[in-house]
């Protein structure tokens, strides 16, 4: 029994070894055949080169693969990229770059661009009236992605109420003045104007404070946009006085944009809107029996006053259009106009057009 068992084991091991050798040889033969077949029938390379490559200023130099929209079945190390001697990602411009593949030369372009304005931080500035101040006095910091220094300037497009350019560098009387600053980079990018306060004090360090009273009978001398404060344009008055030494009108934007200041005007309009819906329903059934679309346009406009040297209030302007439900609203078509008016501070209306005699 023992010999038969041992002889059986020996025969099994020998057979396994032979099978393993045959399997390894078969695998090697298959690998060799595949390699020979690939050598005879290599996969076709598929390369597509960009005509232009955009690179932001101060970026890293493009890598070889960046020049291709498609790069399949080819060794990137066989591609040669040749830049012109003056190429730099630190200088805006268009550069012609040569790409060599299999001895054949192709040409593409690299556009180094800068479309970002500088990052500008400003600060208020205080100085004694009569002393010289400079635009740089209002700058907290300024940096640009080009790495170059910013150019700081007063905002030259600021206009007074007469349309004349404001020279921010020539304020001499004690008071508070709104100054607008911009920054430019060497590539022509410009920041939005930023506002700061210039405080000019007297010799004792004081700044005059205006009387914040409301003039109940303002004049018509001062305009903001196409509006004047008069008896035909009713505003909701607020206590604001802002001016300069030339007694010109001035708009205090902090107050104009203040939600608390605007709140009474907004509430006034909301009440009128509810009334307007009721008014429209009175003509709805006869004018639009098949239903209607409505469009309400409203606008709050600032109104200035020269005598008070500042913002008097808001003109609330309302316009209501309507059309049949199966038609679109054409705001330029007069027959669709339901009402156009200014809203008075007491809630009543001053009609410009009222074809349906809304009360």
Summarize the structure in words.
With 359 residues, the protein is of the alpha+beta class. The chain has 4 domains: 29 residues; 68 residues, Immunoglobulin-like (Sandwich); 83 residues, Immunoglobulin-like, CATH 2.60.40; 131 residues, no CATH class. Helices cover 20% and strands 33% of the residues. It has 3 helices and 19 strands. The strands form 6 sheets. Strands 15, 16, 17, 18 and 19 form a 5-stranded antiparallel sheet that branches. A 4-stranded mixed sheet has the order 2-6-5-4, with no helix packed on it. Strand 5 and strand 6 form a beta hairpin. The radius of gyration is 39 Å and the shape is flat. The N terminus is likely disordered.
Features:
359 residues, alpha+beta, Immunoglobulin-like, 4 domains, disordered N terminus
Low-confidence stretches: 1-11, 209-234, 237-252, 305-311, 329-334
Main beta-sheet annotation: 5 strands, antiparallel
Helix content: 10-25%
User: How many separate domains make up the residues?
Assistant: 4
The average pLDDT value, as a whole number, equals 74
- Please trace the helix and strand order, writing H or E for each element: HEEEEEEEEEEEEEEEHHEEEE
Overall body shape = flat
The structural class is alpha+beta
Tell me the strand percentage band: 25-35%
What is the count of β-strands? 19
Tally of separate helices: 3
Taking the alpha carbons of the first and last residues, their distance comes to 124 Å
Cα-based radius of gyration, to the nearest Å? 39 Å
């Amino acid at each position: 029994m023992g010999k038969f068992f041992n002889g059986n084991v020996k025969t099994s091991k020998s057979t396994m070894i032979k099978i393993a050798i045959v399997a390894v040889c078969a695998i090697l033969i298959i690998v060799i055949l595949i390699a020979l077949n690939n050598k005879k029938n290599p996969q076709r390379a598929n390369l597509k080169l960009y005509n232009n490559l955009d690179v932001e200023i101060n970026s890293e130099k493009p890598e070889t693969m960046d020049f291709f929209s498609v790069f399949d079945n080819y060794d990137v190390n066989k591609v040669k990229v040749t830049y012109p001697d003056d190429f730099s990602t630190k200088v805006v411009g268009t550069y012609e770059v040569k790409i060599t593949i299999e001895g054949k030369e192709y040409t593409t372009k690299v556009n180094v661009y800068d479309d970002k304005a500088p990052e500008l931080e400003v600060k208020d500035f205080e100085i004694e009236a009569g002393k010289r101040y400079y635009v740089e006095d209002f700058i907290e910091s300024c940096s640009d992605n080009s790495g170059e220094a910013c150019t700081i300037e007063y905002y030259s497009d600021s206009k007074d109420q007469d349309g004349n350019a404001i020279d921010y560098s020539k304020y001499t009387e004690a008071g508070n003045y709104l100054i607008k600053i911009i920054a430019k980079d060497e590539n022509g990018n410009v920041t939005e104007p930023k506002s700061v306060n210039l405080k000019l004090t007297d010799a004792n360090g004081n700044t005059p404070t205006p009387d914040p009273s409301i003039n109940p009978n303002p004049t018509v001398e001062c305009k903001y946009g196409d509006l004047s404060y008069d008896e035909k344009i009713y505003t909701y008055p607020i206590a604001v006085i802002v001016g300069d030494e030339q007694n010109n009108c001035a708009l205090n934007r902090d107050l104009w944009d203040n939600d608390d200041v605007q709140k009474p005007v907004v509430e006034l309009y909301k009440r009128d809107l509810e009334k307007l819906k009721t008014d429209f329903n009175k003509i709805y059934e006869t004018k639009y029996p098949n239903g209607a679309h409505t469009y309400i346009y409203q606008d709050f406009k600032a109104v200035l006053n020269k005598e008070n040297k500042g913002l008097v209030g808001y003109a609330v302007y309302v316009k209501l259009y309507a059309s049949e439900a199966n038609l679109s609203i054409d705001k330029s078509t007069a027959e669709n106009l339901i009402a156009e008016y200014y809203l008075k501070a007491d809630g009543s209306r001053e009609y410009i057009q009222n074809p349906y005699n809304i009360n």
